[in-house]
Amino acid sequence: MKMTKNRQQVYDTLVKSHTPLTAYEISKMLDEMSLTTVYRALDYLYEEGQVKYFVLNDFKYYYVSVEHKHFFQCENCKKLFVLDECLIEDYERYIEAHLGFKVSEHFIFFTGLCKECQELSQFSQKEVGV
Ligand SMILES: [Zn+2]
Ligand SMILES: [Zn+2]
Q1: CATH code at position 105
Q2: Which of the two ends of the chain, N or C, has the fewest CB atoms closer than 10 A to its terminal CB?
């Protein structure tokens, strides 16, 4: 694999970021790099298996492959949260034992309300006397 300076910079940005990033966000963070260059670097890194992505509202969110993560998005404020802990191994074993599949990987995306938005909705309910 050839790590050019641009590719390395894009990769390092993803390593440093705790949340997944879009190409646009990366290009804003690397202000001298054009969006096209960022896209090219991401395509290459994806082909090489260095990064993964998921699509959310038509945007590709990239993250580094070495870290296994799950994601949560708040339905109200749309904030994206990263869950570092994986408690899915038992479920994988269950799938393998009961369905005979060989699981190689999983991707989990939760949606719901974040803590802040839960508190906000409780507060507004009290205010209107619900
Ligand atoms: Zn929220
Ligand atoms: Zn997991």
Answers
A1: 3.30.1490.190
A2: C
DSSP E strand stretches across the chain: 51-56, 59-64, 70-74, 80-83, 109-112
Query: What would the pLDDT profile of 26-81 be if each residue is shown by its tens digit?
Result: 999 998 899 999 999 999 999 999 999 999 889 999 999 888 889 999 999 999 99
Q: How far is the CA of 74 from the centre of ligand 1 (A)?
A: 5
Record the pTM.
0.80
Ligand number, closest to the Cα atom of 78: 1
Rounded to the nearest angstrom, the distance between the alpha carbon of 112 and the centre of ligand 1 is 8
Question: How many structural domains is the chain composed of?
Answer: 2
CATH number for the domain harbouring residue 10: 1.10.10.10
Q: Is 31 found in the same domain as 88?
A: no
Interval between CA 116 and ligand 1 midpoint (Å): 6
DSSP 113: -
